[in-house]
Amino acid sequence: MIKTEVYEQVIFETIKRGATEISKDVKSAFERAIEKETKPDAKKGLVATLKSMEMSKVRENPLCVDTGWPIFYFIVGNECEIEGGFKELENATRRAVAKATDKGYIRATMKHPLTGYDPGNNVGENIPDFTYKFVDGKDLEVIYVAKGGGSECFGGTRHKVIAYADGVEGIKKFVVDCFVASTRAGAICPPSVLGVGIGGTANVAANLAKEAACLRTVGSSHPEKAFNDIEKDLYKALNELGIGIMGAGGDTSVLAVNVEYAYTHIAGICVATSSNCMVARRASTLIKDGGQVIPQDSPNWFNGRK
Fold this sequence. Notes:
Layout lengths: L3 H17 L3 H13 L3 H20 L9 E9 L7 H19 L25 E7 L4 E8 L1 H5 L3 E6 L4 H19 L6 E7 L3 H14 L9 H15 L14 E8 L7 E8 L5 E6 L5 E4 L10
Parallel strand pairs: 1-2, 5-6
Antiparallel strand pairs: 1-3, 3-8, 4-7, 5-7, 8-9
Helix pairs in contact: 1-4, 2-3, 6-8
């Protein structure tokens, strides 16, 4: 059985790490972007941003002033025993979010949508957000994602139904149009990690897009050739736009394009995009059945994405 005191501390430490430390795959993507950048100002911007993110780890400061929505994904072994059950796991997560807010790792940005009431601890109706995936085994993996306000509120998330007759070309055109419109809004902070959800209902496509943007390792590929081809084509097309860091021009507009899909109705194809800002804040920790705690380099939400 995994004890409450163990998983509550793990959740807090995972929040802290996700808020203050850039993931290895994102750092590597930045280094590749710096190496290939041909425009001096864009290269200077990428170098300065990477240095700032590295200093955040040293000083234990948030990677960005916008600490985003507190979103959690749990990968739960089918035989996993959690002290207090899932209700206590969620309560412990709320306590960890409040503690992280009090310690300054998260800013108090969550407010009532109509009255503006601010609880001051980022805990309220349906926030934090919880998503679960059940797998074989007895372990529990805790994944924290800080989804930035700009990448959600100002056009970074979009949706449309594509006619079957428009096919792959219609999907790709919509994604390119979305990215151009999002960057013109000036708030998604490129170079982005762009997630694309194809199929399902509108909310299924949107969730897939968000998971693709936030949980896929940067540099991974979809195992099915048709979707991997879409990833490659969009990555090339979006970088050829020359949008660059913060829209100021440059060779890298996206660090990655990650596509996930669901089966869909014959009437049409739901497509959604979700931009994750360049910081791409996330962290994950595996808790073994015996209580051993193992920080993960990247979430294990998607299998077969190498």
